[in-house]
Each structure stands twice: as structure tokens, then as C-alpha cells.
């Protein structure tokens, strides 16, 4: 039974200061305090951020947007960033990273979740999460920002890559950005076009906004662009030579955009974000190495091709992780000795005490990590 309304929960951050002092001084454990607070309301915690589901809205056949209102421990975020979401299922704590599609003035935020067939998190959220339920939120990450200069902006999205770009677009238009904006969204089929009604409304309200979709497997409407990203799709972009470009989508799509951008020699910096792991750079030859887990007091034989995260899990360990592609930093660990290789760039790192991300680092030689 919930004893406190959620409106009070949001204002409890200051009231809980004495409890935080008791925990800091060792008079009580935070877990005990949280257990008692949760009896008053599922979203009430000493320091952890929990959010209440305020609204569910389907924005495509396979994408649901959630409106969340965090408790008073939330420290805010910016459009274009992504937030870690935690979920416990059958006694296992799972984590995924979702882009913020909106950060609203009243403190609420929106995320969009795309259906991942066979996934452990998205099917549960889409099918079972209800208005009034609570979710735990983790750290906010992400470097995508709206260009400061008053130049045209080209937004290139594939699949769920639309979500952080939409967050940035909503904020820019609300703040009166008036230079030309072109959004191209690549999806497999018609029903996967997300936020269509809203984008069409925004396009009608803002003469500087042009929105187009490209279907990569479905039949396109007459006169519409079709197929995967090519430079020819940009022929109608106003002031393309002066545009700033932001791209988000699978690693292959982002790679194609990067190749085009370098060839086009456009001004300013290209901003990209990939939500699938990049093509990994394999070592020239497979080698066996020694892998040590210091805190677990374990040693094992590993190979120099696969990530430290994958091999730690194979050995029975359960490191914290989120995106598994080097973005969210949830799997950051300390390198104690040895050399690791960045699976994206091939760069080698061997300085003891430096932070590495397990999901994109492979052992290059014998390695010991603080895990």
C-alpha cells in the first residue's frame, strides 16, 4: 500500500538530509534506510533516482514513448543525452540505455523504447510496464549537442537513431532556431516511421523545417527517396555546403555518413552516435593470454580477440554494464597491469591505474583488472 502521494515524494530530497548524515557517519546502512522509505512510496529513496511512469504513447508500430517523472534525487539532463534504466527480472538486475526524446520544464522527461525481438528488457517494458509503475534511473551520458552557430542543420537518423535527434530538434524549435533544418529518417518499412504526426505538425508550424523519410525495404511513395543513405538523397537540402551535420543510428549507417562527410569537406564538426557496436578491429593473429580478476581472486586463460566484458561473463563474473558499445561507461574498470586494445580503433593502453571500458577493450597481452 502506498502511504505517500508522489507529489510529496518529489519534495522529500531536503527532508531526508538527516538520514543521509546518519548513513555518512556509519550509524545506519543506506540499504536499510531505502527499505523503510520504499514502504512509504516505491519511488522514495535516500540517494537513488526512481521515476514514476506518467504516460505511455505508441509513436510507431515498434516504438513506445514513456513520460517519466523522477523523484527529488534527479539532477537533470539535456536533450540529446541518454539515461541508464535499471530493471530487475527473475532476480537479475538488467540495465539498458535510452535516449531522452524530451526534457520538460516541469522536471519530467521522455524516452522512446524500440521493440527488440528476443530482448530481455524492451519486450517487458513495452508489454507489461504500466502508468503508475516505477523504474530506477542511473547516470546520464551523451555528447550530442545542437550546433551553436546560426547555420543550417542536417539531421540524419536510422531506426531508433531518431530519438536523441528528436530531443534536440524539439528544444531548438522551442527556443526559436530559425536557420534551415532538414531531418532524414531511414527505416525499413512504413510502420517504423516514428513520431510522424508530431514531425508533420512541426513542419507545418516551422517553415525552416523539412522532414523526409526513406524506406530501405518497403515500397516508397511516388517522389519519395528510397533505399539506404546516399549523397543523392541530400540534393534538396537547403544550404548543404554550410550545414552542420548530426547523425545517429547503427554503426554501419554512421560509418556511411562519416565517409560522405569527409568526402564533402563540409565546415564544422560532424557529430555522430552509434547505438550498435562498431565493426571490431581483429588482431592479426589469435593469441592466448592470461587474464586476472584481482578483487575476485581469479585467473583464467583468455584470447586477444574478444572483449574483457564478454570473457569475464564467460568466466562467471557479472560486471556492471549497459550499452555494451562504449557509450554509457557503466562497465568502466581499472587496469592494474598489462596491455589492452580498444576494439574500435586498435589503440593500445598499458598505463596502470587508468580507466578502461570492458565492453570495447580486449586483452592485448597478459592483463590484470580490478574486478
Describe this protein's structure.
The strands form three sheets. The chain has a six-stranded antiparallel β-barrel. The chain has helices at 6-9, 17-24, 30-40, 122-128, 162-174, 196-205, 251-264, 308-314, and strands at 49-60, 63-70, 82-89, 92-103, 109-114, 134-141, 153-158, 181-187, 209-215, 244-249, 271-274, 288-293, 298-303, 332-342, 348-349, 355-357, 361-369. The chain is of the alpha/beta class and 371 residues long. The radius of gyration is 23 Å and the shape is globular. The model has no long low-confidence stretch (mean pLDDT 89).
Quick rundown:
It is built from eight helices and 17 strands. It is α/β, with parallel strands linked by helices.
The main sheet comes to:
6 strands, antiparallel, barrel
Task: Note the gap between the termini.
Answer: 39 Å
- CATH architecture identity of the largest domain: Beta Barrel
Secondary-structure element series: HHHEEEEEHEEHEHEEHEEEHEEEE
- Beta content comes to 25-35%
Structural class: alpha/beta
CATH class of the largest domain: Mainly Beta
CATH topology of the largest domain: Elongation Factor Tu (Ef-tu), domain 3
Name of the CATH superfamily of the largest domain: Translation factors
Annotation field: number of helices: 8
> Strands of the largest sheet, in order across it?
1-2-5-4-3-6
Number of domains: 3
Give me the count of strands: 17
In terms of per-residue confidence, which ranges show pLDDT below 50 for 5 or more consecutive residues?
A: none
State Rg.
23 Å
Determine the fraction of residues in helical runs and give it as a percent range: 10-25%
Shape: globular
Average pLDDT reading = 89
